[in-house]
């Protein structure tokens, strides 16, 4: 099954890693990870249903003391120092160093990932939340992403990178605005690789977006797909998202691959859906 907002998809018909399938027909759930792997699942039934209220015990989750990190404190701080050296040398403007947290479930066979979606919806509501549950294909993902990686309607594509976060507007600094503008330039470049020349615009720059307990600076980058370009070209041209790599993207990726010790896995903003029959993505 898959759940996005008020939509629930069931009756699995097809699973593929070929993004060209998204230009065909049907309702698809899509999960892309940072390393470029793609899972596209087509469902035969679609209904509207709200995210249910959390049920006591439905999502026990790992115990607080059972979590482990792919980078301990020493390794992480050493990585940050190395990135600062790269910045000083002019190799990169920014690189996003990540740790992967892992924890065992008390009873994996009795745990439903969609129950985690219900818990997240209550405590951390997000505009791009959802579930994709495909256990036979190694995919069980719950996401509560505030960030729009890609939206496609017909030939129009749009991205909403977030840079700059604070508890209140007063927490946002000139550095946050500068970082947002830097990532907007990166996204403009990515979309420019697959969009018609001159069609890429920035309708909103550093707009304020409020969420429970915090505020974001969010920009909008929009373009029209070039003739002959579809989902394969769009995914190849934009992935991984610059907001989770750094800039310039190629240099940031080289640094990330050197410093991070384990694959990142699914990127929360690249878990979504495509209704190919209606042209909504």
Automatic annotation (TrEMBL):
GO terms for molecular function: 4-amino-4-deoxychorismate synthase activity. Pfam families: Chorismate_bind (PF00425). Keywords: Aminotransferase, Transferase. Residues 75-277 form the Chorismate-utilising enzyme C-terminal domain. Its EC number is 2.6.1.85. InterPro entries: ADC_synthase, Anth_synth_I-like, Chorismate_C. GO terms for biological process: L-tryptophan biosynthetic process. This is Para-aminobenzoate synthetase component 1. It comes from Streptomyces luteogriseus.
């Amino acid at each position: 099954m898959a759940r996005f907002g008020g939509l629930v998809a069931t009756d699995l018909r097809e699973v593929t890693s070929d993004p060209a399938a998204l230009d065909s027909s049907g309702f698809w759930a899509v999960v892309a990870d940072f390393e470029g792997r793609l899972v596209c699942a087509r469902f035969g039934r679609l209904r509207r249903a709200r995210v249910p209220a959390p049920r006591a015990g439905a999502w026990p989750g790992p115990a607080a003391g059972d979590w482990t990190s792919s980078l301990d404190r020493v390794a992480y701080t050493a990585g940050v120092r190395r990135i600062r050296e790269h910045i000083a040398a002019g190799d990169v403007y920014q690189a996003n160093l990540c740790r992967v947290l892992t924890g065992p479930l008390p009873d994996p066979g009795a745990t439903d990932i969609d129950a985690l979606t219900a818990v997240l919806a209550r405590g951390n509501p997000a505009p791009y939340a959802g579930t994709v549950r495909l256990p036979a294909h190694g995919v069980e993902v719950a996401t509560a992403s505030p960030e729009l990686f890609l939206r496609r309607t017909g030939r129009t594509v749009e991205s909403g990178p977030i840079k700059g976060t604070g508890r209140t507007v007063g927490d946002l600094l000139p550095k946050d605005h500068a970082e947002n503008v830097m990532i907007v330039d990166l996204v403009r470049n990515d979309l420019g690789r697959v969009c018609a020349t001159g069609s890429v615009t920035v309708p909103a720059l550093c707009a304020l977006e409020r969420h429970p307990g915090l505020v974001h600076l969010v920009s909008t980058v929009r373009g029209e797909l070039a003739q002959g370009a579809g989902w394969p070209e769009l995914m190849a041209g934009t992935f991984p998202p610059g907001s989770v790599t750094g800039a310039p993207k190629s240099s940031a990726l080289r640094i990330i691959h050197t410093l991070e010790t384990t694959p990142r896995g699914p990127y929360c903003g690249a878990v979504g859906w495509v209704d190919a029959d209606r042209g909504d993505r």
